[in-house]
Amino acid sequence: MNTRISTGMLYQQSINSLLAKQAKMAHTQQQLATGQRLVTAKDDPVAAGTAVGLDRALAELERYALNANAVENRLGLQESALTRVGEVMARIHELTVQANNPALGDDSRKAISTELKAIHAGLLDLANSTDGTGRYLFGGTDDGSAPFAIAGSNAVYSGNQTQREIEVAPDTFVSDTLPGSEIFMRLRTGDGRIDGRALAGNIGTGLLMDFSVIDSAAWNGGSYQVAFTSATTYEIRDAGNAVIGTGTYAKGESIAFAGVQMKIDGNPAAGDAFEIGASGNRDIFATVQNLIGALDSNPTTDVQRAEMQNALQASMRDVATAQNRMIDARASGGAQLSALDSAASLREANAITFKDTLSTLRDLNWAEAIGRFEMENTALQAAQMVFMQMQQLSLFKMMG
């Protein structure tokens, strides 16, 4: 087989070589212009694939940062609202102490009642605080409408008990604001563990001053009554009305039984009773409403005044327990804000690592690229000179 080398073929080979060298140099020029080693995926398929994965990881970090900003705003607003609630609770306690003064006149009690009514309305507004985007802070995940409302004389919670968990860094979650039911509704009464009260219908002037658990091992969580059989004697009855003890009453002395103790003052009458048992639940709005009701009772007899003082004493205990719950709620929110700071540090550290790795994969080695460009430019110039010389070759010149 004869192989024929034609002038056209030589020209085409030279043109192809020139084009290839120009394309190679253009690629290097693009690398120099962008500062990127990976202009296309074919430059280094493995590195390009790794870089895409790192880009996605960086995008996720940005999404986590947006999540963190949103929940930080809500937690910050929760802290502000709970701080205000704490101040309001302190004011309620102060007013209750004032109202508990036996020498206080009806006009003064009425003034305190009026302020408490305003406080009651203000508490409702705080419980319905929003995050500035139309979402309610204390509605749980059902936060599209106001979670609290007053129906008749009772507060109603229409949110839910679900607390969002938001991812703010890889495998790091932070809890959103607390559901309002945990802050305002299900508050323990008494001292948070046990509660005591004077029964309605007492006809003496006995006052329940204090109670506490003195022996946790003996306290079984049951309900008991100190029932007066006379002005100076009493029986201790369990929840089944069985008598488990008796005693002689002395003003201000503690009555101890079943791991608890009660301190009663004043002058109880036969048939009066005081109850003690495990704490129940009451919402803060009902506590304030009970205070208002006691102050609006306008007592005129010693028995009525004793009833009012017992109600005020109970309210003081409930308010103090509610204040502690607000402190716990603020501490919970503070822990989440601290977790956000830790998550921010983690995101920053991860972002630095990812960007350093991306720089290694993508950034151009300037010294190598410039040297390569000079070599490619020289090769292209040489090819161009060869092509120009080849254009001058002709058999007619040889024959001449």
From TrEMBL:
All residue ranges annotated as the Flagellar hook-associated protein 1 D2-like domain in the record: 202-276
Location of this chain's protein in the cell: Bacterial flagellum; Secreted
Keywords: Bacterial flagellum, Cell projection, Cilium, Flagellum, Secreted
InterPro entries from the UniProt entry: Flagell_FlgL (IPR013384), Flagellin (IPR001492), Flagellin_N (IPR001029), FlgK_D2-like (IPR049119)
Species whose genome carries this gene: Luteimonas cucumeris
Pfam families: Flagellin_N, flgK_1st_1
MF terms (GO), sorted A to Z: structural molecule activity
Residue runs in coiled coils: none
Name of the protein: Flagellar hook-associated protein 3 FlgL
Cross-referenced Gene3D superfamilies: f41 fragment of flagellin, N-terminal domain (1.20.1330.10)
GO biological process entries: bacterial-type flagellum-dependent cell motility
TM helices/strands, residue ranges: none
GO cellular component: bacterial-type flagellum hook; extracellular region
Family to which the UniProt record says this protein belongs: Belongs to the bacterial flagellin family.
Residues covered by the Flagellin N-terminal domain: 5-141
Major localization class: other
